[in-house]
Request: fold
Amino acid sequence: MVHRKELDPEKSPKAAFGALLRRLRDERGWTQDELAARMGWSGTHISAVETGRRSPTLAFAKAADRVFGTGDRLVRLSQAARQTALLEGFPEYVTHEARAAEIRLYEVGVIPGILQTPGYVTALTTRTIERGAITPEQGEERIALVTERQAALERTPPPLIFVALDESCLRRPVGGATTMDGQLARLIEFAALPNTVLQIVPFSMGDRRPLSLPLYILTMENRSLMSYAESALRGRLERESGSVVPLLTAYHQLQAEALSQAASVAMIEQLRKGTP
Reply:
C-alpha cells in the first residue's frame, strides 16, 4: 500500500486546502489522475496541491469547485492559501468583506487597501520589499489583493462604506508628490459616492479618541457583526457579535468626534494645494 502524506488542516491555509481537496476526491472514489482529467490538470499537480507542496491558483480552485459542485468554497479557501504575506485572520476577513452589507474602517498611518490607487499601493509595497519584510512574490500577492478587494465592492447593490482616517494617513508621504496627489484625489472621489462616508480623525482630538489601532467592522446581510483588528505582528478576526458590539460603540464615538465629511474633504483639498 502506498503511504500517503497526511496533512494537518490546522497547520496552514495551504494544508487546509490540500486536505479538503483530498477528502472531496476520496468521497467520490476518484484517483488523482481521474480528478486531473476532469479538471484539466496533471495528476502530478493534483498530488502537489494535496500534499501542500504547491499553492492552489485561482484558476485551479475554480476548476475544483466546478468539478465538485462546491460553489465558491475552494476559491475562498485558496485565497487564504495564496496570501502568505498577510497577517493571520485577514484573508478570511476579506472573504466576508466581499459580501458585507456595511463596512466600517478606521486606519492609522496608511490609506486602507480599498481606497489605495495603483501608484500608492505599488510605492508602499516596493518599500516593504526593499526592507526585506516580504519577498517580491509576496508583494505581488498584496497588490493583487488590493485589486480583488476593490473589484468586489463594485457590486449591486453596493455596500455602505464608512471610513475614518487618522490624520497621519494623509500626512505620511508615500511615493512622490504625484503619487500622493493622485491618492488624495481618490479620497475626494470616494467621499462623493452615494454609498460612502469619509471622515478624518484630526490630531487635535488627542486622547479623546476611543481607538488607537486599525479596526475593521462588518455588518453582514443578516445583520450579524464581525471585526478584524491588528497590531504590527498579528491580526484577529472576531466573529462573536457580542464581542464586536463594544468595538462598534467605540467606532461610533470616534465618528462623533471626527471632522464632518465636508470638513474632511476641505482638509484634503488644502493638502493637495500644499497648505497646512
About this structure: The domain at 13-82 is CATH 1.10.260.40 (434 Repressor (Amino-terminal Domain)). The mean pLDDT is 88.
